[in-house]
Amino acid sequence: MLTISEACERAADAVARARAAGADAADAVFAADSSQSVSVRMGALEDVERSESEELGLRVFIGHRSASVSTSDLSAAAMDMLVERVVAMAREAPEDKWAGLAPGDRLLHGSAPMLDLDDGARVDPPSLRERARRAEEAARSVPGVTNSEGASAGASRAVMTLATSHGFTGGYAQTSHGLSASVLAGAGGGMERDYAHHSARHAALLEAPEAIGRLAGERAVARLDPARIPSGTMPVVFDHRVSAGLIGHFLGAISGAAITRKTSFLLDRLGQQVFAKGVTICDDPHRPRGLRSRPFDGEGLPVQPVKLVDAGMLETWLLDSASARQLGLEPTGHAARGIGGAPGVAPSNLYMEAGHIPAETLVGEIDHGILVTELIGQGVNGVTGDYSRGAAGFLIEKGEITRPVSEITIAGNLKDMFLALTPASDLEFRYGINAPTLRIDGMTIAGA
After folding, report:
1. Residue 122 has pLDDT above 90, yes or no
2. Distance between CA 325 and CA 275 in Å, rounded?
């Protein structure tokens, strides 16, 4: 794999070629990736995969016209053809007065923050197989587990670079290690499935295979013999396995594209209370070894920790340069760039701060309600905030988590749900987006 310096040279060379071919401005993304994974099932090796790739994406501007192309053929001849084609495409593209590179005076200058995202590990297939074997064995050893969908372990390393024609060139490397197990409990029509997984930038931070497997097995067994419940209005507690999904819906509503298109249920709510006063949501791109840490955004702008919501108040949109221009605001350092196309927006290590109430207390105060551990489907309207999703979890009776439930639907409106939300004190930094256990009273439940 190329070094970071070599990868930066590839991106910068593509930009220089585009400028020489007549582009007024250009930027290029280069990504190199190497990954391998091993899967086992019922103790036997099931699959071994390895992949390596190098891709480059080039975006050029002719005035306010732009076009983008991508390629995995990085030979000199192929690059010449690519540049010629994308410049010709840009000349024919429609004008977009908001399009363009990020403001030159806002670009990251100097050294990027050191985030320790690359552990340099080279994990061999036998080691991955052993991790997966141990995880599945632990899951299958849980009493009540009757079958296995398998376990898998993987490792990857990637180098990401960005170069622009107005003065930015930067890159970084990151590794990723993952482990998962999925098993079934029960028999016949009463079988239930569940899983557990963990990911980390450094192999040393990955949870033990036995812990992952045991958790998968215990979750599957706990779901056996689900009860039927009548429909009604009741409190719903979102386990931290699924609570981050509510933040995901919030992100979609504050993205620059949703605001400029006026397709957000939070339109015109900037600076207003949109969550309960006890809710603060933060984005921290500088967390060492974070799953979504990054030294700069997809346009070369510096990134920094920021509060999106402070004590319930909406503090900012997520803006790339194009949406910021359209709204008459400044970009927020949340531009995200893939190999092809223009930047969008995405958070980094996003989390809702822990509340002051233990999760046990949030549950213990409920006479009759639902603890949700799985959400199904995509029944969320980003324009109105209407929310309706299939769910499974457990019944809460007189403050105790009792019988499993499945095949239910929970419904409400996100505007009301956010204002009624109470966070517990059990925040864990386990995923790219994290939230504690959350309680929302007065949701509509459709059961048997």
Report:
1. no
2. 27
